[in-house]
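Just wondering, does anyone understand what follows?

——
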Amino acid sequence: MNFVRTVTASTLVLALSLGMGGCNKTKPEGTTPPTTGGDTAATGGSDAGSGGDTGATGGDTGGGDTDGGDKPAPVKNCEAKVADAPTALFGEQVLIRPPINVELNEENPTMAVGVVSGGFVSACEATVDRMTLLVFENDKKKSAKVFGEEFIADYLTKGGYTGGTKGTPIVETNDEFDISVEYPAAGGQPASVLYIAVRRRHANFFTLVYQTRPGEFAALKPTFTASAKSLLVKKPS
């Protein structure tokens, strides 16, 4: 399958900005990132991609709970909990198991989003505020890490995510890269942690962005890792 549709940077910026406290910000002008081709598999929820370490290593964000109120702090050593069945996207060419209770829906042929007011109550009662899956054209000259670093520096910055502190890479191979970035409260938006996972699959880079709160990231980190690992992409015919 070929995803022959151009996603403008402004579309991505809007999608990501909406994840920051649900505030609808004005779209900044942007360039046109590559798209085309992404294809996927029709079964199961285990990793179908190139092997990469999918374990969770330390060094990522911690931070205190910024939610306030009487909500109890989530369990720190929470086990990974993803959906029992994968979500099929883009003509059933892409399969992904989101974190448990997160509903992912297509916004256009190269973007799927999961977001509700107040977030999704997921593993160990921790909250997933947003999940976004984006499809970009593969650049064979770039490693997944280089693509991921550019995504953070360019697209996330345009989306209003600035001043972030990166954790230690969680997965790092030529074709896979996972890292967390903690962003401070700014502009009326609360502090947040993004778990960013890049997967090179066939003709595309698939970028997954999971958003939660600093005090709940430790509980959700295994779930985010497992969800990203579950991505299946059908091989082009």
User: Anything to note?
Assistant: The two ends are 8 Å apart (CA to CA). The CA atoms of residues 201 and 233 lie 7 Å apart. The longest helix spans residues 144-158.
